[in-house]
Amino acid sequence: DVKVTQSSRYLVKRTGEKVFLECVQDMDHENMFWYRQDPGLGLRLIYFSYDVKMKEKGDIPEGYSVSREKKERFSLILESASTNQTSMYLCASRPPAYGSPKSYEQYFGPGTRLTVT
Amino acid sequence: KQEVTQIPAALSVPEGENLVLNCSFTDSAIYNLQWFRQDPGKGLTSLLLIQSSQREQTSGRLNASLDKSSGRSTLYIAASQPGDSATYLCAVFNTGGFKTIFGAGTRLFVKA
Is B50's Cβ below 8 Å from some Cβ in A? Predict the structure, then answer.
């Protein structure tokens, strides 16, 4: 079974702090994603990565950055946390299209509930 | 631009009922469609994935259908149980794209 793990289930940080959210997957997937989920707004894509050291902005990248130094690990960084970044953060991974009967099936981690005070 | 809509937004049924959740999408050029379950405060769990060339997929009491030409998918849950209470999301992956587009979800409550 694919496993996607996130470093924390709950996190409380102060305004202005630098925050690191870590995500690790064990299925050698090329593609990894960071989403945030807010009531009434659904899932919104922050950043994604299709290979080591490669990254692309999603729909709401402002205030965030990412790092992918190793294939299995994708980190989301809040450079200076603000209260409007209080949210549920979800990491996901996905295999490439070729050679897989479950191409593009996306797998999610358990989520990190971040509160910025 | 692909848009995914799920109706109803919320549903409450008595235990044992069969039920259908609906998902519609505006652009039929999809690669696949995936149904997820999300429990409160948790991540998304994949239930079923239907490739664009398929019409349906089944897993236990769940059956998902896909009609690409009409831009619709349904998730059928047979003999519902209180443990089925959760939010169900559908998501589509477009051909030639990188992003997955999610619906807002249907919140299901099964009463014992």
Answer: no
Q: Which two tokens stand for residue A36?
A: 């945030």
Chain mean position to CA A72: 12
CB pairs under 8 A between A and B: 51
| DSSP secondary structure, chain A, as one string | ---EEES-SEEEE-TT--EEEEEEESS--SEEEEEEEETTTEEEEEEEEEETTEEEE-S--TTEEEEEEETTEEEEEESS--GGG-EEEEEEEE--STT-TTTT--EE---EEEEE-
B66-109 pLDDT, tens per residue? 999 999 999 999 999 999 999 999 999 887 667 889 999 999 99
CA distance A30 to A64: 21
pLDDT confidence tier of residue A43, bands split at 50, 70 and 90 = very high
Which pair of tokens denotes residue A61? 């990248």
* Nearest C-alpha neighbor of A34 from the set A83, A73, A70, A82: A73
Instruction: Pull the structure tokens for residue A15.
Output: 């305004």
What is the distance between the alpha carbons of residues B90 and B107, in angstroms, rounded to a whole number? 12
Cβ of residue B96 closer than 8 Å to a chain A Cβ = no
